[in-house]
């Protein structure tokens, strides 16, 4: 069985909230010294997502309109067996990948974007502001806002803005306004541009700019694409579908793998399966793969830190490289974030999941192998998961172990061809 597709009525009716099942109680957000960041949260976010952020309900109902749109945009997404890749590797391992790359925006990000735009419209919000790294979240929110009839401003990390110009085109087609960050629109951006005119930007800076705009404008709210609990929640439609598909395939996987930057696609695909591990129903390994150039989980400190550069957000207990950390300009822009989801951080701290890292050259090699065997060009972010999945399959070849590996393919790379061109020509700089 190489392609397991569920009917549209199998789209989950509820999101799964891992908060009540975490092995360690999740530390609450706190203010920075002399700040009012927690007090400002209702100004920044919609009421609905703030309620979800703090909720201890295990299952939260998906609004009918959101679920209907999930069905219209292609959910449930298919689960594929990577038979050609297995044959190329000559491995006894079975490799499966969940295809989140086939959404209209090209990634898993639309699952949360639609929910957040829906809640914003229902509360009378006229505009959402946000950040984006590689552009996948920005594209998703731009589309969601267009579908919900509200405006959208996107602050895109400058290095990715320049590396991926057609992401800007996609967002403009969805009627959004796109700004290279640091921009000249905000006090934060103007300050950084004055101090460091050639600054490549970072997700932390782009978040600060988007929040500054939301704080200053009535009927404008901020929307985050990763890290926070409510974003993790919305993505769990992936893992719930995946559980059903694995049951149909009669598979009990040994290893689950997804990339991590802020944590959304890892959480979405893995949380429903991690619940089974916490409940003692399965004994699988969960690998969270990050860039070796931005090693938040593998080399960061577990402490309270701001989610943005300027300190507009509350301080979150998470693995962090420091909110002023500037990652090298690798092509996996969606993983160039200094911090990690507090929930994912708790799971790493409790050794429920295992963080690993991968270098840029190696992930592009894995991506080329996957493209040449499975006919899909993966995003550089997803290629981190593919690289480690291929490593696991090679280990199985050495030991003769017939293990089953499941990878979340979180996005396509069709707008990342500059990165592929640099790789093929030997011009990768990091």
TrEMBL record:
Pfam family, one: PALP
InterPro entries (alphabetical): Trp_synth_b-like (IPR006316), Trp_synth_beta (IPR006654), Trp_synth_beta/beta-like (IPR023026), TrpB-like_PALP (IPR001926), TrpB-like_PALP_sf (IPR036052)
Keyword Cell wall biogenesis/degradation tagged: no
Protein's pathway: Amino-acid biosynthesis; L-tryptophan biosynthesis; L-tryptophan from chorismate: step 5/5
Cofactor(s), names only, from the UniProt record: pyridoxal 5'-phosphate
Recorded GO MF terms: L-serine hydro-lyase (adding indole, L-tryptophan-forming) activity; pyridoxal phosphate binding; tryptophan synthase activity
GO cellular component terms, semicolon-separated: cytoplasm
Modified residues (N6-(pyridoxal phosphate)lysine): 109
Protein name as it appears in the record: Tryptophan synthase beta chain
């Amino acid at each position: 069985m190489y392609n397991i597709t569920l009917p549209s009525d199998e789209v989950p009716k509820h999101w799964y909230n891992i908060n009540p099942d975490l092995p360690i109680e999740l530390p609450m957000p706190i203010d920075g010294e002399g700040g009012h960041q927690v007090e400002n949260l209702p100004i920044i976010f919609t009421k609905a997502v703030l309620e979800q952020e703090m909720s201890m309900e295990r299952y939260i109902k998906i609004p009918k309109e959101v679920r209907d749109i999930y069905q219209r945009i292609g959910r449930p997404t298919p689960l594929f067996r990577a038979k050609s890749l297995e044959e190329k590797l000559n491995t006894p391992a079975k490799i499966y990948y969940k295809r989140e790359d086939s959404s209209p925006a090209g990634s898993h990000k639309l699952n949360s974007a639609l929910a957040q735009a829906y809640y914003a419209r229902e509360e009378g919000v006229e505009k959402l502001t946000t950040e984006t790294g590689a552009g996948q979240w920005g594209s998703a929110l731009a589309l969601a806002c267009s579908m919900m009839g509200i405006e959208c401003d996107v602050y895109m990390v400058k290095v990715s803005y320049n590396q991926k110009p057609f992401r800007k085109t996609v967002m403009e087609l969805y009627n959004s306004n796109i700004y290279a960050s640091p921009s000249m629109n905000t006090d934060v951006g103007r300050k950084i541009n004055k101090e460091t005119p050639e600054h490549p930007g970072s997700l932390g800076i782009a978040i600060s700019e988007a929040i500054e705009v939301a704080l200053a404008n009535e009927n404008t709210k901020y929307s985050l694409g990763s890290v926070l609990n409510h974003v993790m929640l919305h993505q769990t439609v992936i893992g719930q579908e995946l559980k059903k598909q694995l049951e149909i395939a009669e598979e009990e996987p040994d290893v689950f793998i997804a990339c991590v930057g802020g944590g959304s696609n890892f959480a979405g695909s893995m949380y429903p399966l991690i619940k089974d591990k916490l409940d003692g129903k399965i004994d699988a390994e969960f690998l969270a793969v990050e860039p070796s150039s931005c090693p938040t989980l593998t080399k960061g400190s577990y402490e309270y830190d701001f989610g943005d550069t300027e300190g507009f957000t509350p301080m979150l207990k998470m693995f962090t490289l420091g909110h002023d950390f500037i990652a090298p300009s690798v092509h996996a822009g969606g993983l160039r974030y200094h911090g990690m989801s507090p929930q994912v951080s708790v799971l790493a701290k409790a050794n429920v999941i295992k963080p690993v890292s991968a270098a840029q050259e190696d992930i592009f090699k894995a991506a080329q192998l996957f493209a040449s065997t499975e006919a899909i060009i993966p995003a550089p972010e997803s290629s981190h998961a593919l690289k480690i999945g291929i490593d696991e399959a090679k280990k199985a070849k050495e030991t003769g172990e017939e293990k089953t590996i499941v990878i979340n393919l979180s996005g396509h790379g069709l707008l990342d061809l500059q990165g592929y061109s640099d790789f093929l020509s030997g011009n990768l700089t990091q």
